[in-house]
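Lay summary. Proteins are chains of building blocks that fold into shapes, and those shapes determine what they do. In this project we predict the shape from the chain. Here is one chain we studied, written as its sequence of building blocks.
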Amino acid sequence: MPRRRRSGRRRSRRRRLPEGPPSVAEAYELALKALGRKERTESELAHWLTERGVEEAERIEVLTRLVEDGSIDDERFARRYAEDKRELAGWGPERIREALSSRGISADLIEAALAAESEDEVVARASALLARSGTEVADERGRKRALAQLARRGFPLEAAYDAVRALERNG
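And here is the predicted shape, written in a compact code that computers can read:
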């Protein structure tokens, strides 16, 4: 079967920016469009604007305006991110802390987002995760596998031990 030839050039989806650095108004519009597609932290958006050639003074002005009007809120982002990763991905507090830190969230906001869940709730969630996955903890090998599974998910070692012990008692 003969190969088809492409007719014409493939067009880029990415909108080309005007020559030179964007003005404050253009940078603000760019930032709003970016936030419309995906919620970002202040740090992520600053990096995103820098990649698009926005000068430092304009970037600071745009970020200040976005924070003032509530379009960017690192506290809200941290809280929602932690909730989503706990409930949907089954992540533990350590993995959530690491991910939020890599996104430029301050340590005090990370701790506030993680404080929404008590230690008992962390252990209960870890136990439920092990029960759902069908992990057997009857022997030493099974216990090690369960601990490793919880460690990969970002659960603190003490919570992982407590979850394995709870599964042993109940299972």
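What the prediction tells us: The radius of gyration is 23 Å.
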